[in-house]
Amino acid sequence: MAEQFDVVVIGAGPAGYHAAIRAAQLGLKVACIDAALGKDGQPALGGTCLRVGCVPSKALLDSSRQYWNMGHIFGDHGISFKDAKMDVGTMIGRKDKIVKQFTGGIAMLFKANKITAYYGFGQLQAGNVVKVKQHDGSEVELKGTNVIIAAGSDSIELPFAKFDNEAIVDNVGALDFTEVPNRLAVIGAGVIGLELGSVWKRLGSDVVILEALPEFLAAADTDIAKAAAKEFKKQGLEIKLGAKVSKTEVTGKGKKKEVVVTYTDGEGEKSLTVDKLLVAVGRKAATKGLLADGTGVQVNERGQIVVDDHCHTGVDGVWAIGDCVRGPMLAHKGFEEGIAVAELIAGLPGHVNFDTIPWVIYTEPEIAWVGKTEQQCKAEGIPYKVGTFPFAAIARAVAMAEPAGMVKLIAHAETDRVLGLHLVGVGVSELVHEGVLTMEFNGSADDLARICHAHPTLSEAIHDAAMAVSKRAIHKVN
Predict the structure, then answer these.
(1) Which residues contact 41 (CB under 8 A, 6 or more apart)?
(2) If both were cysteines, with which of 121, 237, 360, 379 could 232 make a disulfide (CB 3.0 to 4.6 Å apart)?
(3) pLDDT (tens digit per residue) in 210-221
(4) 474: exposed, middle or buried (C-beta count within 10 Å: 0-12, 13-18, 19+)?
(5) CA distance readout (Å), 78 to 73, 198, 307, 426
(6) Are residues 87 and 208 in the same domain?
(7) What residues sit in the active site (predicted)?
(8) Which of 72, 312, 455, 463 is catalytic?
(9) Domain finish residue from 352, 370, 398
(10) Is position 163 within any domain?
């Protein structure tokens, strides 16, 4: 007989574990199912983000940034050294230690909140029953008054570039190279491609990124994308636009393996030979095998579970959140959906504002934005005004030897309400939240312009950009 719970959560990634913990805080009896195992073969909570995504990639980005700065910035500070070396094994070990710390932290939170964890693959049956095939081969059945599906997403594999986890890898493989590849090709100039491409470029790899689209970072504001592309070019990160890969071939054996990548651009068919190929063309909802017949839960043509604005599937007591539903595949979007659904189940208000979800690419310089781009405002016929300001005019950025980039603020031409904040530069992953907060409170560019910002700080760039909207910036010619 199935054990009864108030809430059964399938998936312990960012969306799932937030939903489970918040539901438990609200006094509900909660079970959470997760299939993932860590590198040690033991259960590891936290999903893709924590195990092989957001967290480990940031660890490698920081390690590689330290190494890069030694050779490119430290000299400006008068710091000299001899024969700097990177021990890749130590770097990867540090990353793994951080991952283990945080996966263990979630397990502790589950225990403290009296959440029952099941380790294995959960499948939703009719009647809100979840069948769990555990790692030891045994099966258990759980019945939830409410079931929250938070199955996450998987890397998209290309038919002509199948993962072999040696020469052709996804983001997981690119986090665990045992040595710096001499030549690395990346298919896709999105978040994953740019971040992991940057890691190995900084450590000495010759990196080429092949992007099928004719525009760089089409989702970002055009001015920000141009400024970022300029900096990446200076760093030697080669990005080929309009480059459509049609074929890959792995040659050689062992450490002598190479990948011949065939692609077509505006000049015709070309090929390049690399040691490693990272395929980073996006992710897909991990819903295969998740739903038994007769559940009533609908899946769209992209494999995503169909939900309404409140993450309800239309089946009584069944909800879905995170990467396996519509909207951006971002951990923090999943966080908010998980909390909102738990609160809705408990009879409280629950809401996620999709208009104020920030986006961040953790390259050097960082890229971040929230709200509408200038091209979106034009396409939608929204009257707008713009204020910009360069980090090169910010004393703190120059003192840090990080003057690259800019801030761009977009406001409604009639109401002055902030429509979007777009940034490229040092530390903008933190600065973007000024825009998030302002937009959440329906604030104006003038509100930001009249808020005192400490000097000298990087945040002054936002202050000056806000002042520039009404052509009263102090530190630039309006």
Answers:
(1) none
(2) 237
(3) 999 999 999 999
(4) exposed
(5) 9, 25, 57, 21
(6) no
(7) 455 (proton acceptor)
(8) 455
(9) 352
(10) no
Q: What token pair was written down for 247?
A: 């074929």
Res. 449 pLDDT band, cuts 50 70 90: very high
330 is in an annotated binding site: yes
343 is in an annotated binding site: no
| Six token digits for residue 362 | 């953790």
Active site residue 455: yes
Phi and psi angles of residue 68, each rounded to the nearest 5 degrees, phi first: -60, -45
Q: Is there a single domain that holds both residue 130 and residue 61?
A: yes
Both 382 and 316 in a single domain?
A: no
Tell me: is residue 194 an annotated ligand-binding position: yes
Residue 394 structure tokens: 């910010």
1 belongs to an annotated ligand binding site: no
What is the domain range of residue 124? 3-155+284-352
CATH number of the domain enclosing 233: 3.50.50.60
Q: Radius of gyration over alpha carbons of the chain, in Å? A: 24
- Predicted pLDDT at 152: 98
Residue 412's alpha-carbon distances to 96, 442, 458, in angstroms, are: 46, 11, 25
- Take residue 276 and report the two structure tokens written for it: 């490693």
> Known binder of ligand: residue 11?
no
Task: Kindly report the backbone phi and psi dihedral angles of residue 412, in degrees, each rounded to the nearest multiple of 5, phi listed first.
Answer: -65, 135
Q: Do the annotations mark residue 430 as ligand-binding?
A: no
Domain count, the chain: 3
| CATH number of the domain bearing residue 369 | 3.30.390.30
Distance between CA atoms of residues 57 and 59, nearest Å: 5
